[in-house]
Amino acid sequence: MDEEGARGSLDLKTDRSHAQEGVSHVQAQPVKAVAGSQLNGSAHNGSNGILTNGQAPEDQPPTTNGISDSMAIATSSADPPPPLDQSWRKGEQNKSLGLLMSRVAQQCYYDLNKTLDEMSAVPVTAQPPQQPNGVVPHTGPDTSDASLKKKGMLMNYANDQRDRFIKTLVLSDWSRNGAEKARLIDVKVWLDKQRDAYARAEDAVARVKMNMQQARVPNPNIEGAMEVLATGKASWVPDLGYIPPKRLSAKQLLKTLRSMNVTLATRLNLYEELPYYFQDYSIADGRATFTVKDEFEVDLSVADEDTVTQFYFIDIRLSFTPATAVLDERIRGFLEGKVNYQLATNGLQGCYDFLHNFVLTHKVDTLQDQALELIRGKWFDCVKAEKLRRSFVVQYWASAPGPKSWFEIGISSGKQRAVGTRRPATPHISLRWFQKGVEVKDHKLDFDWQNLDVERCLVQVIEKHSLKVLDDLRTRIGALAPANTPFKTRTSDAKSGPARKLLSLSLPSLKQPIDVHVEPVTGQFVVTPPSTASVKIERRLNNDPSADPARWLAGLPCAVVQGRVLKQAELLAWTPTTNLVRQDNLATIFGQKLQHFSIFTPSRAWGEKWALAVTFGLDGEKWWVVELDEKRSDQLETVGRVITKARAVEMPQAAQEDASSVSRATLLRVERRAVGDVALSTLSAQLQRENVAYTMQKLFLPSTGEEAERHNPISSTALFISFSKLMKSIQKGKWTPWANEMLRLTHHGVVYGNCASGEGDHKVRHDLRLSLEPGKLKELHTYIAQSKERDLAINSTGGVALRFITPFGQPFIREIRQRLQRIERIDHYAAVLRQRRFPCTYLGLSRVRFTYSKTPELSVELVFRTDGDGRTTLKFHPHDSNPHRRVRIMLEQAFNATQTNAFKIFTFVLLLTLPALQTFERLEEKELVRRVIAVHPRTATWFSIAYHAPLPQCTFTLRTKTRVEGEKKSVKWVISEFRSSTAGQNLSDDLASAIKALCRDKAEHWEGMGTAIIADARGAAEALEKLDEIVRSFEGAPKQPPAGEIAQPTQLSEPPKDAPKGSASIKQEPKKAKPAPAAAKPIKQEPDVIMLD
Predict the structure, then answer these.
(1) pLDDT at position 344, please?
(2) Of 137, 464, 822, 1013, which has the maximum CB count within 10 A?
(3) How many CB atoms are located within 10 Å of the residue 1040 CB?
(4) Which residues of 95-124 are buried (b: 16+ CB within 10 A; e: fewer)?
(5) Residue 176, exposed/middle/buried by CB under 10 A (0-12, 13-18, 19+)?
(6) From start to end residue, where is composition biased (Basic and acidic residues) (predicted)?
(7) What contacts 258, CB < 8 A, 6 or more positions away?
(8) What digits encode the pLDDT tens for the residues 590-609?
(9) Residue 983: helix, strand or coil by DSSP?
(10) pLDDT greater at residue 73 or residue 199
(11) Contact 289, 281 (CB under 8 A)
(12) How many other CB atoms are there within 10 angstroms of residue 342's CB atom?
C-alpha cells in the first residue's frame, strides 16, 4: 500500500508538471517561431538542451527567465489580449438609473399621500366655515396648534424628499462617467473570477486526493485471471457436487403459471380473509395484483400450494402523479423486506397497512416538496410552509396585515370515521382550513389526491376564501344603499387576470363597473379600473386592519364619478366656481342632503350669475342649473357669492338610458340643455334689434331613441322668423321670395373648440328649417339630395335644414342671410353646369366641384370662404397635370371681380382656353432640356409665345377678340404680332415669308387674315401647331442683319394655279433699307374675361 501511495503521489506530481508545461506551451505559442527563444530555460546549445536559470551561451544574447529580446519584440507585436467579460452588464441585478429615478418619484408620491393622511388625522379644535370646492376664507395669521403641526409635517416631508433627490442628483452626475466606471468593474470582475478559479482549482485537487483514498484496490490476481480466461475454471474453488436443474420448456412454464394462478384463486376465494381495500384484485402470470385506487398496485405470489404459507412480494407500482415509474433498487429491496415481514406476521392486512401508510407519507412529502418549490417562485414571501411530523402547514397571504390564514394537510388515524362500523380504522389524508385564525368546519374543499399539485390546492383555497370575502362585502354594501337605487352590486367570474371572482359596483354614470377582487398571491384588495380614489382606498384597506372595507367601498363609486366629472370638466375647460360662502340651506335649495357636490362655470360666456352644479350619491348624480348672487356684509362689502336658486336639468329618457358613462359627450349634453333657454332669449333680443318679426313657441318633440336625441333640438322652445323681412335688407331691385314666409330656428346646445378656454372657443349650434316654394331651386334639390353636405339638407318635399355653429352670445343674423343667399347662388351654378353638360361631383354651401373635360379627365373645385369677404378660391384637379394651373390666379381674380354671370363666363373661358393650354404643354414637352419655347400669360385669355435659340428668336401673341354678328356675339382667338424677340433685329426673310404664307392659308377651324390668324378654340390649337412646325423648320438658320442695313426681303406672291392649296411662291425684290423700328409701345391691358350677354 505504501508503494502504491508513493506511486500515486509521483503520478500526481507528474500530472501537475504536465499541466504546467501545457500552460507554458500555450503562453509561448505565439512566439515559438522566434529564433533563440527559451521556455523555462530551454535552449538548443545547453547541456541536454537545458539552460539553468535561463543563462545563454556566449554566442547567443542574454535572456531573462529564459526569454530573449527577440521574444519580447515578438510578444509586443502579437495580437491584443481578448476582451474582458462584460456579461455582468446584462444581469438582472443591474438596474437603470431611469428606473431608480422612477422609483424615487413614486416613493415621493407615496410619502406625500402618507403625509396628507397623517395631516388629516390631526384633530382640529376650531374650523372656519368651509365652502364647496374646498375654499376657505382668509382669517388672519395662523395661530392654531393643529395647523402649525400640519405645516411642520409638510416641511419635514419636503426636507426628506429634498435630501433624497439631492442624492439622486449626485448619482446622476456620477453616472455621466459610466463608461469608465463600467471598465473598472470589468477588471474587478475578471480579478474575482481569477481568484475564484484559483480557489476552485485548489479545492478540486484536494478533493481528488481525498477521493483517491477510497479508490485504492488490492493488487490484481494476474495468474488466477489468466487461468479463468484460458480454461474457464478456477482450480481453487471447491466442487460441491450440485446437480443443475433442468431448464423448463415453454409448455412447462405455461403449465406452472396456470397452476400458480389456480392456487392463488383457490386460496384467495376460499381460505383468505381479504382486507376491505384489497377487494379489487386480478390474477395473471402466477401473481395476484391488488389495486388500491389513487394509491398503489402490489403484485403478490405464493411459493407452495399449502394454504398456510405466506405470500411473497413481487412488485409495486404507485397509482398517483407525480411518482416514479420504476423504483430504485435500494428502495425496492427495503420495501420487499418490510412487505415480506408483514405478510409473514400479519398477512394481507399487515401488507395493506404498511403500504397504505407508506403511500400516504410519500404523498405528504411530495406535496411538501412542491410547496417549497412554490416559495422559491412567484409565491415568494407570500406563502410559508412548515412540516409537522407526518403533516405540513401552508400559510397563504403571509404579508397581509391582521390575523393569518392557512390550511393543514396531514395523515389522520381515521378512528373517528370508523366509530359505529365494523370496518377497522384506516388512516387517510386529512385537511383543515383556517381563515383569519378561525377554523372553517364545512369548507367543502375537493383536492385531487391522484394528481398531486399543491399549487392547484392553494389556488382552490384562495378562490373560496376570496369568494367568501366578496360575498360578505356585497351583503354589507347593499345594506348601506338606499331603496330603489340604481346602484348595483354583484359577484361574477373574471374574464381575465389571476383572480377568478370579483365584486362589481355599478352606477349608470360609470363607463364600466368598479371591479373589486382579492389578489390571489398577496391577498390584497385590487380595485379596477385604477383612479385616484381607488388607489387611496386600496392603500387604506391593505395597510390598515381596522378599516371597514364595506364603508370605504360604498363611497368609492361616488368618488370615482366625481373624479371623472372633475377630469372631464377640466378637459372641457370648465372653471370651478370659487368665492362661494358656506350655506346651511343647501338641503332646502337642492331638496336633498348633500355629501359630494361640485359647481362649475362652463365658459366665461355664462357670466357671474349662472353656474352648473352636480351632486353625487349612491342614487346617482344629478345636474342642476344654479343662480348665484352676491352676498354682502353689514358694511355692504361683497364677501362672496351664494346659491339662490337651483333648477334640475331635465334630460330626455333616451339620453338618461344612454348616459352609461361620465364622458365629454355627457357633460356637453348637460350643458346644451342648460344653455338652451338662455341662448334662445339672446337670439330673440338680436332679432328685435334688427327689426325682424319673430315669434317664440313651445315645441312637443319627444325623444324616443338615439336617433331622435341626435336630431331633436335641445330646447323645447323655437323661434319662428319672417323670411321676407330677414332677406329684404340685402336684396337689390325686384326680388321674389323662394321660400315660405316662416323660418323655424331651434337651439341644439354648445360645441367646444380645441383651443384654450375662452369665450370665443365656445360655439352654439342652431338649426334653421324652411320650406321651398313650389318650383323653386329645382337644380339645388337634385344635387343636394345626393351629396353629403353637413350644414345643408333637403328632403323630397322641399324642406330645407341649415346648421349654424356660432359663438355663444354673439349675433349671427348676418350669417343666416349669407347662407340663404348662397343657397340661391349655388342653385344658379347647378343650372349653368346642366346647360354646359358638365358633370357635377359635389355641390354644397362650402364648395362646388365639377368636371369640364372627360379626355383627359379635368375638374375644378370652387371653395367659398367663410371669413366674410365672400371670395372664392379655385382648385384645379389633377394638381400636377391640369393645363389651367398656368392661369389659376388670373381666373380666380377675374371670377371674384365679375359681378354678373361670373360663373357662366368662367365655364365658357374654361372651354375656350383648354385646347390652347393643352397645346402649350405639348409644345413645351418637345424641348424639356433646351427650353426653346416660353409661354407668358398676361391674362387668362391673352398669351405671349416666345422662341429662343437655337430656334429663330421670335414672338407672337394669342388673345381673344369679340366679334359681333348681328345680335349675337362670338369670341375668337387671334394670333398676331409676329416679330423678332432680339432687340433691333427683324425676322429672317424665309421665316417671315413662311409665316405670311400661313397667315394667307385657311382651314376648317381657323382662317388667315394676311397678318394674323383668327380661329375658334380648336382652330387655335391647330394654328399653334403649324406655327411651331414653321419655327422649328428654321432651326440653325443665319440671323437676319440688323434693321437699317440693305437686305433682300422676301415677299409672298400669289401661288401658281397648279400649286397646291396653301402654298406660296417667294420672289426676291430689292428694297430700300428702312429705319430701325421705334421702341415697342406698352401693351394695353384688357379685362381678364370678356363680358357676354
Answers:
(1) 92
(2) 1013
(3) 21
(4) eeeeeeeeebeeeeeeeeeebeeebeeeee
(5) exposed
(6) 1-19
(7) none
(8) 877 676 788 998 887 777 87
(9) coil
(10) 199
(11) yes
(12) 21
Buried/exposed 881-903: b ≥16 CB within 10 Å, e otherwise: ebbbbbbbebbbbbbbebeeebb
Burial class (CB in 10 A: 0-12, 13-18, 19+), 594: middle
Predicted structure pTM score? 0.45
Of 57-61, 355-359, 577-581, 918-922, the least confident: 57-61
Rounded-to-integer distance, Cα 179 and Cα 185, Å: 10
CB atoms within 10 A of CB 418: 13
pLDDT at 53 over 70: no
**Helix H or strand E segment including 1024:** helix 1017-1033
Which pLDDT tens digit goes with each residue over 758-783? 444 567 788 888 888 887 887 777 77
Inter-CA distances, 393 with 434, 435, 459, 886, Å: 11, 13, 15, 91
Helix (H) or strand (E) holding 92: none
pLDDT reported for residue 1053: 32
Question: Cα separation of 260 and 520, whole Å?
Answer: 57
Mean pLDDT of the chain: 78
Place of cell 383648354: 914
Distances (CA, A) of 362 to 108, 294, 342, 587: 51, 13, 19, 71
Biggest alpha carbon–alpha carbon distance for the chain: 162
Model confidence over 786-844: pLDDT tens digits?
A: 666 778 888 877 888 888 887 765 678 888 888 888 888 888 888 888 888 898 888 88
* Per-residue cell: 25: 506551451
Residue 398: is it exposed, middle or buried by C-beta count within 10 angstroms (0-12/13-18/19+)? middle
What are the cell numbers at 1064? Answer: 406660296
654: Cβ–Cβ under 8 A, 6 or more apart, which residues? 703, 704, 705, 706, 708, 709
pLDDT at 113 over 90: yes
Angstrom distance (rounded) from CA 861 to CA 877: 8
* Amino acid, single-letter form, for residue 1067: K
- CA–CA gap between residue 462 and residue 468 (Å, rounded): 10
Hey, which residues does 502 pair with through a beta bridge? 492
pLDDT per position as a tens digit, 451-507 = 999 999 999 999 889 888 998 998 888 888 877 777 888 887 765 555 677 888 888
pLDDT digits (tens, 9 = 90+) for 870-891: 688 999 999 888 999 999 999 9
Residue 3, C-alpha cell as written in the block: 508503494
710 closest CA partner among 655, 666, 764? 655
pLDDT for 388 equals: 81
The gap between the terminal CA atoms of the chain, to the nearest Å, is: 137
**In whole angstroms, what is the distance from residue 707 CA to residue 654 CA?**
10
Q: Cα separation of 249 and 1021, whole Å? A: 118
pLDDT band at 130 (very low <50, low <70, confident <90, very high): low
- How many other C-beta atoms lie within 10 A of the C-beta of residue 65? 10
Q: The cell 353625487 sits on which residue?
A: 616
1030 residue type, one letter = I
